[in-house]
Amino acid sequence: MSEPAETPQAPLVLVVDDVAHGREIFAEYLEFRGFRVATAADGLEALDKAFELLPDVILMDLSLPGLDGWEATRRLKSDERTKTIPIIALTAHALASAHDKAKAAGCDSVVTKPCIPRDLETEVRRQLAARSERS
Amino acid sequence: MARVAPFTATPQVRGGVGSRARLALVDALLAEQEVRPCAVLTLRWLARHAGIERGLCAVVESETGRLVGLTGLGLSLASVDAFSLDLNDRMHPLVVTLAASEPVAFSGAVPGSEAGQGMRQPVDTPLGSDPFYAVPLGGPGESGDIGPGLLLVDAVDSAAEEDIRWAAEVLGVRLQSLWFRRSQVDERRYKREQSWLFGVINAVTDPILLTDSEGRILVANAGAEMLLTADDQKSEGRRRAVALNNMLFSASIFTSSSGGGPTRHELLLVDPTEGQDLLFEVMSTPVKIRAGETGTVSVLRNVTDLRRATDEIEEQYRKLRFAEAETRAERDRLDLILNSALDPILVTDPSGNIVLMNPPAERMFTVAPGDKIAEAERRVRANDAVFTSFVSGLYASQSLRWRGELSLIEPRSGATVPVEAISGKVLSKHGEDTAVVTILHDLTEAVEKQRLYEQVKRHSEELREKVREATAELAEQNELLRRQAFQLEQASAAKSQFLANVSHELRTPLNAIIGYTHLLLEGVSGELSRPQSEKLGRLESNARHLLSVINDLLDLARIESGKMPVQLERVVLQELIHEVMTEVEALIDGTRLTVTRHISDEVPEIHTDRQKVKQIVLNLLSNALKFTPQGSVSIRLDYEPEKEWISVSVADTGIGISEENQKTIFEAFQQADSSYARRQGGTGLGLTICRRLASILDGQITLISRLGEGSTFTLVLPRQPRET
Fold this sequence. Notes:
The complex is a heterodimer.
Chain A (H helix, E strand, L loop, with lengths): L11 E5 L3 H13 L3 E5 L2 H11 L3 E5 L7 H9 L9 E5 L4 H10 L3 E4 L4 H18 L1
Parallel strand pairs in A: 1-2, 1-3, 3-4, 4-5
Chain B lengths: L18 H13 L3 H15 L5 E7 L4 E8 L3 H6 L1 E3 L6 H7 L4 E3 L25 E5 L12 E6 L6 H43 L4 E4 L5 E4 L1 H7 L7 H21 L6 E8 L6 E14 L2 E10 L1 H37 L4 E4 L5 E4 L1 H7 L7 H24 L4 E9 L6 E12 L5 E10 L1 H79 L7 H31 L8 E3 L1 H11 L1 H5 L4 E6 L6 E3 L1 H17 L5 E9 L4 E8 L6 H4 L11 H6 L6 H11 L3 E7 L3 E9 L6
Parallel strand pairs in B: 18-20
Antiparallel strand pairs in B: 1-2, 1-6, 2-3, 4-5, 5-6, 7-8, 7-11, 9-10, 10-11, 12-13, 12-16, 14-15, 15-16, 17-19, 20-21, 21-23, 22-23
């Protein structure tokens, strides 16, 4: 990063999942690993949190009640404020079509559930590095 | 023979003949215009008045230079004509006498007696052996030194001598007078005739020549002069041509005049004016041109045109003969064709009469010997009627061809013969009908064939109907099958959907299990005791196995529902194998196996789905490592250029697979040794998925194995899948 951080803060990850244990596992592990974490349980909440907090990475479960993950991703990627935030899709759908759909909506990568939390951390760090390279 | 005493030169008039008688002779002689009668008159007068009994009048013939007999008295005509004396024999007594002016007395020739002493031979005359007088005729002869002739008379007494001398005198004068006149007349006539003659020979266009014995030209008409003479004014070419012609002509005269009579030969000369060759037919006739010399009259007829015409006629004739031969040959050929045709062929004239038939036609339209005459004739007449009516139809119509089917009767057997008749008009140059040629074709066989055809057709129809029914039934079955297939497809899709849903519903809780286990193992919730860590480790391991089972099931479901996407790209297999080896390094480390690689450098890049190939190779290698307790595992990469196949073989010295199990090893959930496999963490779906994936990439997986000795799995891939 080019700009000098006055108070060097850990990256903020927004974890979006309608299933409580899903949110808890990834949030707890990422915090344990030194990230700052915010959570959202549905699409609308995810949008609010994203615009409010402008996280460094968003983990987006796709099957959400109400506004689903794909739609939320599209909105975030079409907004000037949030369009550069990497979005990692999380899905229990292992079919390639689900992956393609996620990429089409604007997700930067797709991780299939179940996934080992350490693997997810690896992906988050990868996306952060990629973003810093872009900016 | 003794010479008698010579006449005395002095005439002795002895009475006898009076002046009146002499006057009568003179009158008679003057009245006579011809020579011979004058001589006759004189001899007769002497017979009457001088008493001579035999006498001969001989005259000089200046043309021949001889003394010849003119007329005689009391002598045979033959002896008179035979008398001839050469005047060149100057010592001959009679020739001497001719030059004398006085009569000479001779003794006659005595046959068998020799000449007297010092005397000449006796003179042989028509008067024979009797003594005679030779009296020169009066007047000078033409040649001057000799007289015009002699009178020979038998011996008379001297009284008559005077009369004889007188008569000889008178006769000589008269004869000379006649000769003189005649010579003048002859000269004129000769000239006239000569001019006529020249006119005639000049009027003849054929060259005519008279040549002497040495070939010199004596007479030539205009035509001959044109060919054979040239004066100095003429051109050099013409002179040369003429010289050549002369040589040719002389040569031909000499060669042809060997025989005595007229000859005929051909002679090639040059036209001196035009220069072209002229062919002449030369007719040469020998003629006497003067005493002792024979010349040749040659008439040349120009046969150049004649020869040309003859040649032309011969050529025409030859051509005619040739054409005739050709025509005959043509006709023979035609006959041969007609006769060798198996179908009856007939030619009819415009009246409908048959003018030509070949043998097959004759069999139908004539009665052959040995037939039952009456019946056969009736049948032939019937055939004739049928045929004539058919042909008349063509004559009546405007068309040139006519086709019909007739029913004829075989004259011998009476069998009905259906025939196809095809007639064609033969037209003259002016478009008139001259003949009709008809060919009949026996349809018996065709009719039979038609019957068989109908039968076959009927059977065929029946068959077709049956096939149609069967087809309809089949279509129905197909439809049924299609519907079933559709239902199956739907069922299959439902199954896939179900599996996908099941997978999703399984993954969510599994995510929690794996996630929490991981959190605990990572110490997120604080330190764990050793037994707790061990138990959580087993939990995680089982959860992972469950996850791989779920993943495999999902793969299988995707493959079976045809939803497995294929992403083709350039793949370097050497690199891919290296990657796989790296990934299984940990696994290898956990064994005591010797792992070797044999990578051929010849293997080219291939076009395929990298992820799927990697999945297959990884699976095969993992299996080999899992199912080989000891020994070695080797991986080979080869290329077969002819078939453009790439093969990846994984060989082990493991437990191997029985023949029985080799048949089912690729089926889902089949493991050769279930308990062992489970211990090794296999799902039982790996080989099934591998084989399906290989098939999607147009490849295949083969297996060679023996129980207890090891296995070799080989993935074979094309350089490029059939469809991209």
